[in-house]
Design brief:
Blueprint: E1 4-8, E2 11-15, E3 21-23, E4 28-31, H1 38-44, H2 54-69, E5 73-76, H3 84-88, H4 92-102, E6 106-110, E7 124-126, E8 129-131, E9 134-136, E10 147-149, E11 154-160, E12 163-172, E13 176-178, E14 189-190, H5 194-197, E15 205-208, E16 214-217
Parallel strand pairs: 4-5, 5-6, 6-7, 9-10, 10-13, 11-14
Antiparallel strand pairs: 1-2, 2-3, 3-4, 8-9, 11-12, 12-13, 12-15, 15-16
């Protein structure tokens, strides 16, 4: 899978090129910030009109990584929907598609700031979920248990053969994994933003997504 393998809290995990996190021993996959229904939410609120295909595209990529890894547990680490109205407005075929992905698996929706309440879809809704000393939550917390989170949509830039490549990325240090946004139209926050200085170590690793996972020191992957 051309993944980046690392250890946190004594557990061996993989940052996949797709932006999903894979925990082979637990057969567990985590993704963050799908923001399903963003185009619908913007149109509803009178904002910019975007092509209404981002939900189907995001789910197609999610189906791809689920098919490749066959996880027993899937954790969606918050902001799975752009707001609760977008969740309520899902077309029947999209809701059925999500239900098919969740079937036969433990499917956990973590509460995010965009989707603070339960949605009418299969799965369990939690504020936080812990596995083997690792906490899955939407927003990283300083101190406490090592955690896997999303929220910030980190992005980094790499110069390769004279060309600038900007991609969503993981940020990983000894106690924290911040996942890239998995959804289409999600934007991102530069990894040199001061917000990251408060939650990840200066020597954190940035793992850029794409055809293969590219790992660089955070200080070398300047957005």
């Amino acid at each position: 899978m051309n993944s980046y393998v690392f250890k946190i809290a004594g557990n061996c995990l993989e940052a996949l090129p797709s932006g999903a996190l894979w925990w082979p021993e637990q057969r567990l996959m985590a993704v963050a910030d799908l923001h399903l229904g963003k185009a619908e939410r913007l149109a509803r609120q009178g904002g910019s009109l975007l092509p209404p295909y981002e939900t189907a595209e995001t789910l197609e990529r999610l189906e791809g990584v689920l098919g490749a890894c066959a996880p027993r547990t899937v954790i969606l680490v918050g902001d799975s929907f752009d707001d609760l109205g977008a969740a309520d407005a899902l077309p029947d075929d999209i809701a059925e598609r999500i239900a098919r992905m969740a079937a036969g698996r433990r499917w956990i929706w973590i509460t995010g700031n965009h989707d603070p309440g339960p949605v009418d879809l299969p799965g369990t809704h939690l504020a936080e979920h812990r596995v083997e000393g690792l906490a899955f939550r939407h927003i990283a917390e300083s101190g406490g248990a090592p955690d896997v989170s999303g929220h910030y949509h980190p992005k980094a830039r790499l110069w390769l053969r004279g060309q600038s490549i900007r991609r969503p990325c993981f940020l990983i240090d000894a106690r924290r994994v911040i996942l890239p946004a998995f959804g289409t139209y999600t934007g991102g926050l530069r990894i040199d933003d001061p917000a990251f200085d408060r939650i990840v170590a200066r020597d954190a690793v940035a793992v850029l997504t794409g055809k293969r996972a590219i790992a660089l020191p955070r200080t070398a992957a300047i957005a």
